[in-house]
Amino acid sequence: MDLGPMKRDIDDLISQFAAADSTRFSDMKQVWVSKKFSYIYNARPTCANSLALLMQSLYSHSIGHLISPDSSLSRRLGGLYCLYCLHETQPFMPPFKIYLSLEELKKVRSLVAEAQVRGLGAAAALVRRLLEKKAFLFGCVETNEGLKGKVDELTELENRRIRAACEKLFGESKIEELIHMDLGMEVDLGEVKQKSREYKELKRVAAVEGGDEELLGDVIEKIAKEWDAQREVFYRQTGLSQKLNEEEQQLLQQEEEGDGDQCFDKELEQILSQQS
């Protein structure tokens, strides 16, 4: 998650506010609305942990302007006003709290006191409202040392994962070979076209000679039935079927008689051999 563009947007917002040496909260609201700054949340991630990291990063960047010792009062008040607007316009429920270290809290109190001396009561009113809403989460770790380091670490880790995934996806793999494959070299298109033409011609000839409405098995079955019908007609007209049946019976009878004679001869031969 690259937070650089969002941080630059905050820088531009505060710079535009401080360019006119503004100190009033109403001026910050005008700049905020003119830039439609609430749309900054449209690029938010979906993971809950990433959302918390996003909000704390935006808070921390605004606080950086607020506590900068070399910045003008207008820019530091711009950081405070931006911090308040970020908290109040966030679309999350419950809203994310603002982490503030004890050292940063001292600098916020110093800014509020300086603003009151110059007759700017808006700063104290906004801080008081945030305290009433319990919007602050106080700690001992400096934001720039703790949160920023964690953000940079997680950002670098995510970038490494993305680079590793890209290298694995677009590296020399089977997909890479298929992308650069020359189909004309892999397949003999001339031979394929020639066989395709031959197949088309054979199909045309078969359609002309035999028709393509009936299957070969159906045609053979039809021919067999016609043959059987014609043979029965032939048998009835010539009586050949009856003659064939009579001849077959005679042959069977002769074979049976022949077998009987052979049995008798064997039996006679056996009796004679016993008497001798």
Write down the secondary-structure element order. Answer: HHHHEHHEHHHHHH
Low-confidence stretches: none
User: How many alpha or pi helices?
Assistant: 12
* Strand order in the sheet with the most strands: 1-2
Find the structural class using helix and strand composition.
Answer: mainly alpha
Q: What is this structure, in a nutshell?
A:
By secondary structure, the chain is mostly helical. The chain is built from twelve helices and two strands. The protein is rod-shaped.
Descriptive notes:
The protein has 276 residues and is an all-alpha fold. Helices cover 75% and strands 3% of the residues. It is built from 12 helices and 2 strands. It has helices at 4-19, 25-34, 48-66, 73-89, 102-117, 122-132, 143-170, 174-179, 183-186, 189-210, 216-238, 240-275; strands spanning 98-101, 136-139. Strands 1-2 form a two-stranded parallel ribbon. The chain is rod-shaped. The chain starts with a helix and ends with a helix.
Features:
single chain; mainly alpha; two-stranded parallel sheet; rod-shaped
Topology:
Blueprint: H1 4-19, H2 25-34, H3 48-66, H4 73-89, E1 98-101, H5 102-117, H6 122-132, E2 136-139, H7 143-170, H8 174-179, H9 183-186, H10 189-210, H11 216-238, H12 240-275
Parallel strand pairs: 1-2
